[in-house]
TrEMBL record, chains A, B:
This is Glycine--tRNA ligase. One of its GO terms (cellular component) is mitochondrion. The keyword Kinase does not apply. It catalyses: 2 ATP + H(+) = P(1),P(4)-bis(5'-adenosyl) tetraphosphate + diphosphate; tRNA(Gly) + glycine + ATP = glycyl-tRNA(Gly) + AMP + diphosphate. It comes from Enterobius vermicularis. PANTHER family: GLYCINE--TRNA LIGASE, GLYCYL-TRNA SYNTHETASE/DNA POLYMERASE SUBUNIT GAMMA-2. The lineage of its organism: Eukaryota, Metazoa, Ecdysozoa, Nematoda, Chromadorea. Keywords: Aminoacyl-tRNA synthetase, ATP-binding, Cytoplasm, Ligase, Nucleotide-binding, Protein biosynthesis, Transferase.
Length: 638, 638
């Protein structure tokens, strides 16, 4: 919560949000027309946005942080940098250098331990190349797109919402823009997120926005699919895409995984891998890229029982929740226990709540500042078409609150879609508390009639009839009856069966992690300047995440001693020239948390060295026979 | 070496190879015409192939191995399986299930430890999406293709060499094919590898080969590029490909890596990542796929000094070498020390030899049978356009000898190509033994003349003149002189400089690992049947590679005891139903090397359990307080 002075300034904005929150709620309760609800939601979101911006601008600035300096460090010490720079570079593509690569590997290894191993998940690795029908079924071919406008003469493309935003921001900076126009523009900006192609087109024509490069007229907004297209094989006819998420690979393997789990539900699958999004004009460094690594978990569970056996372990775990309800009331995020949030139905179910706690624990473990971490619930119209509840783990950075982990209850949407597309049942069995009797209709083939009529093909026809589903039998019977045909070949027979299990399509709870975004947020939260020396910047990375755990700075060259020290792999020997201070600065910059200095005093038996902790610059003298492996595991807060 | 009886049978075939090996050598020595050499090489390779097939057919069969059974096991226990099977599947794409995924992660982790950490390599992670100009420079756009023929009516595509092979093999099985034709066909088969499009076209027309599916006529062989095409961004004009190897990502980052290494050569970069090849008709499981993981090392070294400081460590290491010379003489592979092979110039240089030894050590460490491992040298016409020496680590499997690791000296081809394409110098500096004096030509701008003539643009022109290279200055001077123009604006000035360093374009030594191929070879070499029970198959995986190190089979449910046992992550609890024998069989099948059984005897203090070693089925009773972590590290041979 902000100070009372700030809260006083925010109060009218909070009230303005709540006014429309209440209107939306009322319309929904009374079953109002969709168009009215949609309109009210756009106004609600516009007011929310104004509130959020006011909150950010009134918050005390993060004095220590200077993004330009961080970016310079990351580039200079090759954590990551733009791909193909010698060829002019490609926006939205990044190469990870030795430091970034090691840090990413540590992050992923910790993720695997925290989730896959501790929770006994089934990890899979699926193909990135994905045939079109799979992504047609998942909804990506039809719905995974952004609106784009084109320069009518040059064909140059712009993302429609970005173009409007940039034009308006320029006009707002222009002192000649009259006050009335300013209000209109603020209103457009606030509503931009909720606009469709028609809304954006009318904004562009109303204000006469042109191509920012040529000044030419623009087309109407057209949908641009964000998947990278390709073709498999030589004919050019087998259309495919690079996967936009790793989840679909798990869904199409559902049957194999269920079998691997000996037919038992619930079970959890996970995948670590790359995905691709052909962004129209990516910016913001690692936050919005065209090729990225993600970690996804798909927890398959009985839709009527989403309890989690380990829930008691996280019941009292506290998280900062920004619920849909709070958002509509103009309130801030609130600290709550997971147990209370599930108990009060703020979080939809135990399994979703359990993962939110585990996600929170993980983000803290890898170095996210807990004071800059919240879960924001999607408003109902924000949610993806498949989701029934969704909470984004958002991390506060210099780019604002960014989504790092999406936590969604995808219900049974995906499995049902793939079933519809393939005819392959993607269901599990649930044991009934006691067996029950059900009526089943089966087609009983009239074998002798079929045999005479179809001879060689009879076997095929008998097989097809026998395997018909209940609904098919009924509808075939009806059709034949309606068309006045006599049923010669089969009869529908009604049977009574005792069944012990029920067939269910599982619901899917999905935490989905953006590796690059988490990594960037860690780097921002770890970035420091030495007090009294702003030029000396460094990274206070936790040892578990740091690319290198410890440096060895030899002032004296005691070879035998160095050999003892370097046996272990997380040591990095810096024998570059320069004063010891300069060498410490070099290792601090790349986030090496510990430094061991071998000096002339070390030569005297019993051999000793100096261990320095980068964050505090404290030093301690230790015997060389010390087991230094603790430095890789040490848990400490910056 | 084979038995004397077999060698007797092989002797004439060996002589036949040597005959043409000698002809090729003679032609080369005498500077014969390229067309004659090429012809002789094709005949040489044909004879080599016949010899190799005879060797394989005469070798004692690997009695224990039954590929169908292995494939059944891998599918059933979900090591890996065809991707998108519920959509009909895609050839050449595989999904890794929980067992395959864990095994692959172990393999890659061991690779990282064996190479990246132990050798202090700079690991990078680069983009898979690659702009066309990068792959144009590397030669892949123009040269990375296979010959394909199309059905003239349906447009269906076939790989030309596969089509010819299949047609001929069918005709050879047909008893009506006359003996004379058989000889011709054998000859075509033997020469197929060396054929170009014209050769294959004449075979297809001579024998009237048609589409195997429709019987329609076929087109002439056309080159089909094996890269997957796509476009970046919305305009459709930014052409790109999915990378066909990870190496290019390292080359385009050369400058950043050199800088990271404080400008010092040699240094080594490595990358673990996916690559893609749009095969025309992939078969052979994991051996030939469209999407695969690879590990590549690029060792940048002074082209005039390819010594390696750690070479003494591998000098006496023994490997099986199948040199180009032995291949041309019709001899078998020979065991040699790396030191001798480099000393006798069989292996081109120390660095290449050092890596071959390290590759050999790695393959043995992960479970490749050392008796089924050899290095085969490329014949000069087999080598990629960039390579100057190349040795494939080949592993013997039921598919024959397959290339698992390519070890090439790529010389400075790649860096030079990217320099030509971008104008960005990709060179390092080498300290001269003593400084030397060189003549340098510099353009000295005539500032006052330029200032008066060009006013505002003068600064630009002066800058451009000052930064001109020696050759440019000379050629500009000459051009102006020739055209009779007086040089007003600048004069070329000859300076004498003392230089301490020399600029060099490094050579690149590249070991390149196919992860899927190595994994498949390990699985084949680990596959066993229990003596006396052929139905009971299992995998004798080394603990370091095994997806799970140890199973816990609870017969009695001592909860406290189980909790103690399961703390560690490499344990897998099998509480499925079934007899203890059946449960052992289940865990043996997925290659779990150790099993711990908790039984009724375990309940009595001091608590004890049974540890079983899957390979030998030996059992031993141990106290529960034993530190079981040794099982993950134990080095043992199957």
């Amino acid at each position: 919560m902000a100070s009372p002075e700030i809260e006083q300034k925010l109060a009218p904005l909070r009230a303005a949000v709540k006014e429309y929150g209440d209107i939306v709620r009322k319309l929904k309760a009374e079953g109002g027309a969709k168009v009215d609800i949609d309109k009210a939601v756009i106004e609600l979101k516009a007011r929310k946005r104004i509130l959020e911006e006011a909150e950010l601008s009134l918050a005390p600035p993060d004095a220590a942080f200077d993004r330009v300096k961080l970016e310079d460090l990351l580039k200079r010490r090759f954590f990551y940098d733009q791909s193909f720079a010698i060829y002019g570079g490609v926006t939205g593509l990044y190469d990870f250098g030795p430091m970034g690569c090691a840090m990413k590997a540590n992050l992923i290894q910790l993720w695997r331990r925290h989730f896959v191993l501790e929770e006994g998940m089934l990890e899979v690795g699926c193909s990135m190349l994905t045939p079109e029908p799979v992504l047609k079924a998942s909804g990506h071919v039809d719905r995974f797109s952004d609106w784009m406008v084109k320069d009518l003469k040059t064909g140059e493309c712009f993302r429609a919402d970005h173009l409007i935003k940039n034009h308006i921001e320029k006009l707002l900076r222009d002192k000649k823009t009259p006050a009335k126009m300013r209000d209109e523009f603020m209103d457009v900006l606030a509503k931009l997120d909720g606009m469709d192609n028609k809304d954006m087109h009318s904004v562009i024509t109303k204000y006469g926005f042109k191509s920012p490069i040529t000044g030419n007229d623009l087309t109407e907004p057209i949908a641009f699919n964000l998947m990278f297209p390709t073709v498999i094989g030589p004919t050019g006819e087998f259309k495919a895409y690079l996967r936009p998420e790793t989840a679909q690979g798990i869904f199409v393997n559902f049957k194999r995984l269920l079998e691997f789990n000996q037919g038992k539900l619930p079970f959890v699958a996970a995948q670590i891998g790359h995905a691709f999004r052909n962004e129209i004009s990516p910016r913001q460094g690692l936050i919005r890229v065209r090729e990225f690594e993600m970690c996804e978990i798909e927890h398959f569970v009985d839709p009527n029982n989403k309890q989690h056996p380990k829930f008691p372990k996280v019941r009292d775990y506290k998280v900062l929740l920004f619920s849909a309800c709070n958002q509509m009331d103009g309130k801030s995020a609130q600290e709550t226990t997971i147990g209370d949030a599930v108990g009060e139905k703020i979080i939809a179910n135990e399994t979703l709540g359990y993962y939110m706690a585990r996600v929170h624990q993980f983000l803290i473990k890898v170095g996210i500042d807990p004071n800059k971490l919240r879960f924001r619930q999607h408003l109902s119209n924000e949610m993806a078409h498949y989701a029934c509840d969704c909470w984004d783990a958002e991390v506060y950075t210099s780019y604002g609150w960014i989504e790092c982990v999406g936590n969604a209850d995808r219900s049974c949407y995906d499995l049902q879609q793939h079933y519809k597309a393939t005819g392959v049942k993607l269901t599990g069995e649930k044991k009934l508390p006691e067996p029950k009797t059900v009526n089943v209709v089966e087609a009983i083939p009239n074998k002798s009639v079929i045999g005479k009529a179809f001879k060689g093909d009879a076997k095929l026809i008998i097989g097809a009839l026998s395997s018909m589903e209940e609904a098919e039998v009924k509808s075939l019977e009806e059709k034949l009856a309606k068309s006045g045909l006599v049923i010669l070949y089969f009869s529908g027979q009604y049977l009574f069966c005792l069944v012990h299990v029920e067939e269910i399509t599982p619901s899917v709870i999905e935490p989905s992690f953006g590796v690059g975004r988490i990594m960037y947020a860690i780097l921002e939260h770890a970035f420091r300047e030495r007090e009294g020396d702003e030029q000396r910047t460094f990274l206070a990375l936790l040892p578990q995440i740091a690319p290198i755990k410890c440096s060895i700075l030899p002032i004296s060259a005691n070879v035998r001693l160095l050999a003892v020290m370097r046996k272990n792999n997380y040591f990095f020997k810096d024998d570059s020239a320069g004063s010891i201070g300069r060498r410490y600065a070099r290792t601090d910059e790349i986030g090496i948390p510990f430094g061991i200095t071998v000096d002339f005093e070390s030569e005297v038996e019993p051999w000793t060295v100096t261990l320095r902790y980068a964050l505090t610059m404290e030093q301690v003298r230790l015997n060389v026979s010390t087991n230094f492996s603790f430095i890789a595991r040490k848990k400490m807060r910056n």
